Amino acid sequence: xxxxxxxxxxxxxxxxxxxxxxxxxxxxxxxxxxxxxxxxxxxxxxxxxxxxxxxxxxxxxxxxxxxxxxxxxxxxxxxxxxxxxxxxxxxxxxxxxxxxxxxxxxxxxxxxxxxxxxxxxxxxxxxxxxxxxxxxxxxxxxxxxxxxxxxxxxxxxxxxxxxxxxxxxxxxxxxxxxxxxxxxxxxxxxxxxxxxxxxxxxxxxxxxxxxxxxxxxxxxxxxxxxxxxxxxxxxxxxxxxxxxxxxxxxxxxxxxxxxxxxxxxxxxxxxxxxxxxxxxxxxxxxxxxxxxxxxxxxxxxxxxxxxxxxxxxxxxxxxxxxxxxxxxxxxxxxxxxxxxxxxxx
Length: 345
Known about the structure:
Tachylectin-2, Chain A, mainly beta
């Protein structure tokens, strides 16, 4: 893959805060699609609060009648009921608050490189099961509509929800499709053998390591026929876990997908994978070496360094435009040839 010389394409400074008293720490992990002659990125925007000496402020939402209103909640550090939890948040009288919270914002571009970020969130928390934020959207065009799956976070942990839009202005939420703890869901762009297909990544709290699973659905809501289709290999790249990227690409040789791995020293890399067209849980070929791994300063340094993470690709002929998050902080672009990737597998 060839990195865009303009990287990073979008940084926190390019995004306006969603509420007074909030500050943007990251604009990363973009879902991607083509729409009305433009490329749209669905960016994860992570925000914290401006801090004052002697207190700690955290971003929160107040929910009423299906609407979430962002607000800043401040606690006195001298209060014995206030307990700091390293850099991730604070506990007050048994109730936990996070130090950062994410929502999804749209960025728009006519050339796929120069983006303008919308001033307001596209998907933000609207209920208690999203009260710790919305993360890592993936968008897939299926039967003429744009389906967006995303991770929602709450005190009940994290899971995957689904929404649909026709214009990227209004959006209909369809609810939770994979319950806790499950994320990295990738929807296929078409049915296979009459069923909708998805990858998902349940958390392994007992045996084994977090792996990529396969599932089928008659309606995109109810999922079954689950299969563990790919497990982490015993390598430095995949020593911790693996997970799906964005919607697979249909080729004459099979379904081409790019997945992420987390390896030694919590380092994330990206790998190519080829799956059978009729039995998408069956692996035909799997790359030995990564397509992309952290090398540039914006990938090795940042909010959480040594991370490249993709959940959005746009295909133009033979070219893959792979948008990815770098160091949990910025949005970047790398391009490559489908034929070359397939030949190298």
